[in-house]
C-alpha cells in the first residue's frame, strides 16, 4: 500500500478551516486527500490525478469519509482552467506531493522500476501515447545526453547515450539497465547507481514533470485566498530548486522597487507570499525508518499575503 510521505507535516501546514475549499493536486492513492477531507465537514475538496487505477481506488476510499469532494481526471498543469470549469476562482489551501506512488513503482508493467523487468513505459497517464520507449529508441544521441545530464545529473551521460544508440532497439527496463551497467566502471555502477538517475531522467522527460511544475506554481499562488496555504513535497533537487526559487520570487519585493517604502510600491509588485519555513521540512527519524522512499523528501510551505 502507498505510504504518504510527510503526511502530518504537509496537512498541518495547510492550517485547515472546517468550511474551507482545498485542492490536492496529486491525489494518488488518497493519503493527503483523506486527511484533508476528515478536517473539512463543511468545506469541499478537489483532487487531481491522471491515473485511472489511483482514481478508482481513491474514490472508494474518500467516499467512506464524506461526499464533499470531486476528483478531476487531469494533469495538475490544468489546475486553474479545471477549477474555473467548477466555478472556483479562489481556494484556502493546495497540496502537491510530487513523488509517484508506491503502487505505480511496484506494478511491474508500468516500467518505472530499474529493479524489475518490464516494457519501457513510465507514463503517469496511460492514455498518453508517448512513453519511455519513444525516448530510448527514437531520441538522437545529443538529445539523450542532454536529458540524462539535465534531469539525471549523471556524469557518464555521454557514454551511456552513445551505447544506447549502438544497442537499439531496447525493449525492456532490464535491457536498458544492462546497457547502463556496461557503459560505466563497475565500482561506479555499484556505488552510485547511475541507472537510478537515468530512469529518473527518462521519467521526467516522458511526463514533462519539471515544465509542468514550473508553469503550475504561479497559478496555484494566484488561486489562494489571503491566509491560504500551499504545501509542496519534492523528491529530488531539480524539483526542490524550482519550488524554492518560485517561492523566493513571490515572497520578495520586485527588485525594481527594492529601495522604496512599502506604501510606495504598486500592489502588483508587492510580495504575494510569506515563507512558513525558510528551510525545507525533512522526514523524521521515525518516518525514515518506516519508509526508505521518504529519504529524499523535502516539504516547503507558504502563505498568501
CATH class of the largest domain: Alpha Beta
Radius of gyration: 21 Å
Q: Strand sequence of the main sheet, in spatial order? A: 3-2-1-4-5-7-6
Distance between the termini: 38 Å
- Per the principal axes of the C-alpha atoms, what is the gross shape? globular
Chain-averaged pLDDT: 92
Uncertain segments: none
Offer a quick outline of the entry.
With 305 residues, this protein is α/β, with parallel strands linked by helices.
Structure description:
With 305 residues, the chain is α/β, with parallel strands linked by helices. The chain has two domains: 7-97 and 209-304, Vaccinia Virus protein VP39 (Rossmann fold, 3-Layer(aba) Sandwich); 114-207, DNA polymerase, domain 1 (Orthogonal Bundle), CATH 1.10.150. 45% of the residues lie in helices and 14% in strands. It has helices at 7-12, 31-38, 52-63, 79-85, 102-106, 132-138, 141-152, 157-167, 173-183, 186-192, 194-207, 209-223, 237-251, 285-290; strands at 21-24, 44-49, 69-73, 91-97, 224-234, 273-275, 298-304.
Amino acid at each position: 500500500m502507498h505510504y504518504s510521505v510527510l503526511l502530518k507535516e504537509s496537512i498541518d501546514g495547510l492550517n485547515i478551516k472546517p468550511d474551507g475549499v482545498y485542492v490536492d493536486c496529486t491525489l494518488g492513492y488518497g493519503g493527503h486527500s483523506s486527511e484533508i477531507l476528515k478536517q473539512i465537514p463543511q468545506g469541499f475538496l478537489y483532487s487531481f490525478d491522471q491515473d485511472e487505477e489511483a482514481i478508482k481506488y481513491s474514490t472508494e476510499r474518500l467516499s467512506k469519509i464524506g461526499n464533499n469532494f470531486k476528483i478531476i481526471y487531469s494533469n495538475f498543469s490544468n489546475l486553474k482552467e479545471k477549477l474555473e470549469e467548477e466555478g472556483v476562482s479562489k481556494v484556502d489551501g493546495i497540496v502537491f506531493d510530487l513523488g509517484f506512488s508506491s503502487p505505480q513503482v511496484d506494478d511491474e508493467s508500468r516500467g518505472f522500476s530499474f529493479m524489475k523487468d518490464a516494457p519501457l513505459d513510465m507514463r503517469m497517464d496511460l492514455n498518453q501515447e508517448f512513453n519511455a520507449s519513444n525516448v530510448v529508441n527514437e531520441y538522437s544521441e545529443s538529445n539523450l545526453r542532454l536529458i540524462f545530464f539535465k534531469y539525471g545529473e549523471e556524469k557518464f551521460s555521454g557514454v551511456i547515450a552513445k551505447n544506447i544508440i549502438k544497442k537499439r532497439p531496447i525493449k525492456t527496463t532490464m535491457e536498458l539497465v544492462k546497457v547502463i551497467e556496461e557503459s560505466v566502471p563497475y565500482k561506479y555502477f555499484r556505488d552510485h547507481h547511475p541507472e537510478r538517475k537515468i530512469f529518473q531522467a527518462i521519467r521526467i522527460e516522458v511526463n514533462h514533470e519539471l515544465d509542468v511544475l514550473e508553469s503550475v506554481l504561479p497559478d496555484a499562488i494566484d488561486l489562494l485566498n489571503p491566509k491560504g496555504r500551499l504545501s509542496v513535497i519534492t523528491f529530488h533537487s531539480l524539483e526542490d530548486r524550482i519550488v524554492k526559487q518560485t517561492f523566493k520570487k513571490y515572497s520578495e519585493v520586485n527588485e525594481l522597487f527594492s529601495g522604496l517604502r512599502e506604501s510606495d510600491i504598486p500592489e502588483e509588485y508587492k510580495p504575494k507570499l510569506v515563507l512558513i519555513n525558510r528551510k525545507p521540512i525533512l522526514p523524521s527519524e521515525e518516518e525514515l525508518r518506516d519508509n526508505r522512499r521518504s529519504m529524499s523528501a523535502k516539504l516547503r510551505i507558504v502563505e498568501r499575503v
